[in-house]
């Protein structure tokens, strides 16, 4: 006959933690799964509550009182959200705080919790009750040439001479992966869950953003693959959109598109009687051209994350 699996012995502190979890609304089966022990072992711990508390006091912990966890006023919702979270993470679906809050609001409507708002405070308490933390699923870094960065910072004041802050602009492209899932997710820390991601969605559009040193934002340029996307059906013209839309096979910036955008920007500045300084990176799609009311200044390679405001955080917002 096969040898019986060795039973894991829980410490006194771990057994008291079992009491807190169960009294906090968790099921015996859920706690047993998290601690990798049998359900019967958890049930036996509940029966031994009085003796465990007595032992806790006898070991010199009388000053550290055993406190019964405060339960959420939305106990049923708490459990439903937890079960949904466990199912989602079992499929390696990233779950951000905002996604969890929105799911909780949906469930609250179904359960009749009219006063529930899924506030940030509720989220923090929910995470603490279930020992859920935020983890990075993936990341990407870049190496910058610190010497070049330092040199340009010294020269930047001279470069911007003659321009008011409101006339100093920065433009940068970014890829918008509109079907991508979050790169960070809440994970079950008690269970030792690993932060595993899923295959990333590749569908994207490119967006060119431009803003001034004083916060003035210009109209976005969006570049997609399709000349007439299905979502534009019914539109007489793309001119009614809050963005300028262009297309090419790769949905990325090209020299032709950049010059077309620059001509339109230059014409706009002419009409306003303004001359601006435009900081851009040295991307191959950015030609070194001259316009009457727009002066281009190219940032050195491998410095954009340090010197370019759009790349340093504005795009992420």
Rg, alpha carbons: 29 Å
Form type: elongated
Number of helices: 11
Widest β-sheet, arrangement of strands: 6-5-4-2-7-8
- Quick one: how many beta strands? 8
- Uncertain stretches of 5 or more adjacent residues: 1-5, 138-143
Largest sheet: 6 strands, mixed
Residues in β-strands, percent:
5-15%
N/C terminus separation = 62 Å
User: What's the SSE pattern?
Assistant: HHHHHHHEHEEEEEHEEHH
Mean pLDDT: 80
Binned, the helix content reads 25-40%
- Which structural class do you get from the secondary structure elements? alpha/beta
How would you describe what is shown here?
This protein has 317 residues and is an alpha/beta fold. Helices cover 40% and strands 14% of the residues. It is built from 11 helices and 8 strands. The protein has helices at residues 12-23, 28-35, 39-47, 49-61, 75-90, 97-111, 120-130, 146-159, 255-272, 304-307, 309-314; strands at residues 132-136, 168-176, 184-188, 205-212, 221-224, 244-247, 276-280, 294-298. Strands 6-5-4-2-7-8 form a 6-stranded mixed beta sheet. Strands 1-3 form a two-stranded antiparallel sheet. A hairpin with an 8-residue loop joins strand 4 and strand 5. Helix 1 (12-23) crosses helix 4 (49-61), helix 2 (28-35) crosses helix 3 (39-47) and helix 5 (75-90) packs across helix 6. The protein starts with 11 loop residues before the first helix and ends with a helix.
């Amino acid at each position: 006959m096969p040898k019986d699996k060795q039973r894991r012995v829980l410490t006194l502190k771990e057994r008291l933690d079992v009491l807190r979890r169960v009294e906090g609304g968790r099921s015996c089966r859920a706690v047993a799964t998290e601690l990798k022990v049998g359900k019967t072992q958890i049930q036996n711990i509940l029966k031994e509550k009085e003796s465990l508390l007595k032992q806790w006091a006898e070991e010199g912990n009388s000053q550290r009182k055993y406190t019964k966890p405060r339960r959420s006023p939305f106990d049923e919702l708490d459990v439903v959200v937890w079960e949904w979270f466990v199912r989602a993470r079992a499929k390696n679906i990233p779950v951000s705080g905002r996604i969890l809050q929105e799911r909780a609001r949906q469930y609250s409507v179904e359960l009749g919790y009219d006063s529930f708002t899924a506030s940030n405070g509720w989220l923090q308490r929910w995470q603490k009750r279930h020992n859920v933390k935020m983890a990075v699923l993936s990341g990407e870094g870049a190496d910058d040439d610190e010497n070049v960065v330092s040199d340009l910072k010294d020269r930047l004041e001279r470069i911007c001479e003659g321009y008011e802050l409101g006339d100093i602009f920065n433009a940068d492209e970014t890829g918008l992966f509109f079907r991508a899932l979050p790169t960070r997710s809440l994970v079950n820390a008690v269970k030792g869950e690993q932060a595993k991601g899923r295959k990333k969605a590749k569908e994207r559009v490119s967006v060119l953003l431009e803003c001034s040193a004083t916060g003035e934002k210009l109209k976005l340029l969006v570049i997609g693959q399709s000349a007439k996307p299905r979502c534009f059906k019914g539109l007489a013209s793309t001119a009614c959109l809050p963005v300028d839309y262009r297309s090419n096979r790769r949905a990325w910036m090209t020299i032709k598109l950049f010059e077309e955008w620059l001509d339109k920007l230059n014409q706009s500045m002419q009409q306003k009687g303004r001359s601006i300084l435009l900081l851009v990176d040295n991307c191959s799609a950015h030609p070194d051209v001259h316009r009457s009311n727009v002066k281009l200044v190219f940032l050195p390679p491998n410095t954009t994350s340090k010197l370019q405001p759009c790349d340093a955080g504005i795009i992420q917002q």
